[in-house]
């Protein structure tokens, strides 16, 4: 399964295109559509990406997160919207975060919408200056992801 148009659009809106590197709210060097600059990618510190270049980097990144969602939800049959919502969450919280999350466990167990939404909403914190704090942007993002997950 691959990320569909709705998932890609949500990720692009939430990550916001940035042509040059910046430090994300949790302190990671980032470029394009939320691509965390890794060891060996130091060239991005001096780069200015075009939108198509950032979109290509996002597409490359998505492959990892799509695989993690498939691993994390192997007991569930996901619709395209559900898969897209999970990829958006995974893109933001990481592969291990998603695969070990209550969200993935609840999806696999097919628990109620209320419980899945509550588990989803817990991923609203980031580490800022060494402390876990609620980030308003993440509160909004989690609601939009959960809304996509439960949409037809």
From TrEMBL:
Keyword Hydrolase among record annotations: yes
Protein name: Lysozyme
Keywords attached to this entry: Antimicrobial, Bacteriolytic enzyme, Glycosidase, Host cytoplasm, Hydrolase
Catalytic activity: Hydrolysis of (1->4)-beta-linkages between N-acetylmuramic acid and N-acetyl-D-glucosamine residues in a peptidoglycan and between N-acetyl-D-glucosamine residues in chitodextrins
Family label: Belongs to the glycosyl hydrolase 24 family.
PANTHER family: LYSOZYME RRRD-RELATED, PTHR38107
HAMAP family on file: ENDOLYSIN_T4
SUPFAM superfamilies from the UniProt entry: Lysozyme-like
Enzyme class: hydrolase
The protein's Enzyme Commission number: 3.2.1.17
Matches recorded under InterPro entries: Bacteriophage_GH24, Endolysin_autolysin, Endolysin_T4_type, Glyco_hydro_24, Lysozyme-like_dom_sf, Lysozyme_dom_sf
């Amino acid at each position: 399964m691959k990320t569909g148009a709705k998932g890609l659009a949500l990720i692009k809106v939430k990550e916001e295109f940035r042509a040059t590197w910046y430090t994300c709210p949790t302190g990671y060097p980032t470029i394009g559509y939320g691509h965390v600059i890794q060891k060996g990618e130091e060239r991005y510190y001096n780069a200015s990406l075009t939108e198509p270049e950032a979109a290509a980097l996002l597409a490359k990144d998505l492959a990892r997160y799509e695989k993690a969602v498939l691993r994390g939800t192997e007991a569930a049959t996901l619709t395209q919207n559900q898969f897209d919502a999970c990829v958006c969450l995974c893109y933001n919280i990481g592969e291990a975060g998603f695969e070990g999350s209550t969200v993935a466990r609840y999806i696999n167990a097919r628990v109620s919408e209320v419980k899945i939404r509550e588990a989803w909403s817990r991923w609203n914190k980031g580490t800022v200056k060494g402390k876990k704090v609620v980030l308003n942007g993440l509160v909004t993002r989690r609601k939009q992801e959960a809304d996509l997950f439960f949409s037809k």
